[in-house]
């Protein structure tokens, strides 16, 4: 048996971050959107465990954790222990989501692997158990299972679907070198020692989604980690300005960065902005729409 599960990247349309909790995590009020950039996890039956990764030419292969250190190894351990079985399988991750980019690429791999191994091992884990295992693997993993547009609270792991009838178009500009999420959070703590314990609520953003208006959404986009990411990588500020000057409705750092995303008014607008940004020295510029589905089976044989 061989099967492939696909899981999407995320953008945080709203990322309200509060002062760190006792466990070191930051309380969040976030609105996630899954966008059409995907990693694929393929799993086939085998007598022991093997994991491989492939990346597109433009991605730094050395930046991807290899077998043994990859989050997918932890997925296999956790799901196998949950069912009291051995982990087995030959698993391959085909990456397209920027690594350490603020788009939850590792979380997408974890969500895809959970769904793939659940099916490969025929263990039929109930959805609530899958979500609980996902939350143990990382704050963004439950959202990568769910997809669509969702409100995230807690440390981001408590997810609730948001009714989103829109089709939103984004231009995505990854950076050559990733940023470490913990490092960006630490920098946020240094820059904002008086951050409130309650994160900024997402009401304005949710209202804009309900209206379905791209200009209203542009106005409401909010990311409390943006200042920290730009302080660590000042070139991101210049990129956002360049994208807005080139006609984006709004540019924003994605999550903890360094990927920047630009909201566009239509598919044509996104294609043309992507072409403009590519011609100004950004080797990789992608266009993607959201919301799209969470981790889902795409082939089975
Ligand atoms: O949950 P996850 O493993 O993805 O988080 C990675 C790191 O990001 C954490 O170890 C923590 O440093 C930081 N983080 C945080 N607050 C959150 C989510 C992540 O401080 N809500």
Automatic annotation (TrEMBL):
The active site is at residues 10, 140. The lineage of its organism: Bacteria, Bacillati, Actinomycetota, Actinomycetes, Propionibacteriales. Its EC number is 2.7.1.148. ATP binds at residues 98-108. It comes from the Bacteria. Belongs to the GHMP kinase family. IspE subfamily. This is 4-diphosphocytidyl-2-C-methyl-D-erythritol kinase. Keywords: ATP-binding, Isoprene biosynthesis, Kinase, Nucleotide-binding, Transferase. It catalyses: 4-CDP-2-C-methyl-D-erythritol + ATP = 4-CDP-2-C-methyl-D-erythritol 2-phosphate + ADP + H(+). SUPFAM superfamilies: GHMP Kinase, C-terminal domain, Ribosomal protein S5 domain 2-like. Residues 206-279 form the GHMP kinase C-terminal domain. Residues 70-148 form the GHMP kinase N-terminal domain. One of its GO terms (molecular function) is kinase activity. Catalyzes the phosphorylation of the position 2 hydroxy group of 4-diphosphocytidyl-2C-methyl-D-erythritol.
């Amino acid at each position: 048996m061989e099967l492939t599960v696909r899981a999407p990247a995320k953008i945080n349309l709203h990322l309200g971050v509060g002062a760190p909790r006792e466990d070191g995590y930051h309380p969040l009020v976030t609105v996630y959107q899954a966008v059409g950039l995907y990693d694929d996890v393929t799993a086939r039956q085998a007598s022991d465990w093997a994991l491989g990764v492939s990346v597109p030419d433009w991605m730094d292969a050395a930046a991807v954790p290899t077998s043994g250190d990859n989050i997918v190894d932890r997925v296999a351990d956790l799901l196998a222990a949950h069912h009291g079985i051995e982990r087995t399988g030959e698993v391959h991750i085909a990456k397209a989501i920027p690594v350490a980019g603020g788009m939850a690429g590792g979380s997408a791999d974890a969500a895809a692997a959970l769904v793939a191994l659940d099916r490969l091992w025929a263990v039929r884990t109930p959805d609530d158990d899958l979500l609980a295992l996902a939350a143990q693997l990382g704050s963004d993993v439950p959202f990568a299972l769910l997809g669509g547009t969702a409100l995230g609270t807690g440390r981001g792991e408590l997810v609730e679907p948001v009714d989103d009838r829109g089709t939103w178009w984004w231009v995505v500009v990854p950076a050559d070198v990733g940023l470490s999420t913990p490092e960006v959070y630490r920098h946020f703590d240094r820059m904002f020692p008086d951050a409130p314990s309650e994160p900024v609520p997402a009401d304005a953003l949710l209202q804009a989604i309900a209206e379905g208006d791209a200009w209203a959404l542009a106005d409401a986009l909010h990311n409390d980690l943006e200042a920290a990411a730009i302080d660590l990588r000042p070139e991101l500020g210049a990129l956002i300005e360049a994208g807005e000057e080139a006609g984006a409705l709004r540019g924003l750092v994605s999550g903890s960065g360094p990927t920047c995303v630009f909201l566009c008014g239509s598919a044509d607008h996104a294609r043309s902005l992507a072409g403009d940004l590519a011609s100004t020295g950004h080797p990789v510029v992608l266009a993607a729409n959201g919301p799209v589905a969470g981790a889902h089976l795409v082939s089975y044989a």
